[in-house]
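Appendix B, record 7
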Amino acid sequence: MKNKNTLVNVLILATATHFLKKWLMGDDKEDVKEVKQDSTLKRKKEQLLELFS
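Structure tokens (predicted):
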């Protein structure tokens, strides 16, 4: 019975660690997406300015 409880505790800890890591890394991914969108918008703006100048 003790082995079964240990296995359950390990699985719970592994799952919690996985989701915590995913949550923390998810913030970085969102920041990267925002930076990419900003650079894309700047590039498009520059292209439009070149087109109309």
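Remarks on this record: The chain has a mean pLDDT of 80. The helical segments are 2-52.
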